[in-house]
Amino acid sequence: MDNSGQPALSCPDMQQPETKLVTPASLVVDAVLVIAFFLYMYSVVSTHVPSKDHRMVLFWGAAGSACLTLVFWLTIQMFRVVLRVQREGAKSSG
Predict the structure, then answer these.
(1) Helix, strand, or coil (residue 10)
(2) Share of the chain above pLDDT 90, in %
(3) Could you tell me where the DSSP H helices lie in 1-94?
(4) Separation between Cα atoms, residue 35 and residue 22, nearest integer Å
(5) Is 10 inside a domain boundary?
């Protein structure tokens, strides 16, 4: 049994990432974009809640906005991955 200091699930043939994918600046940018998107979507969605009760408008407006904001966050992450792969591809082929 080889106990050379590597975890048991680590594969020595796997390539390690060269740079950090998440930086503090990217986290701040993501947070600002996501909060701004949530507030914008809440202003749009809350006007479409069919209720006169202010608590229900708040609840369903926030619930709908949260779902849309999570999809927006996911698209930001997917965009970053695709952009990074395209840039790395252009560097290696160019």
Answers:
(1) coil
(2) 65
(3) 24-45, 54-93
(4) 18
(5) no
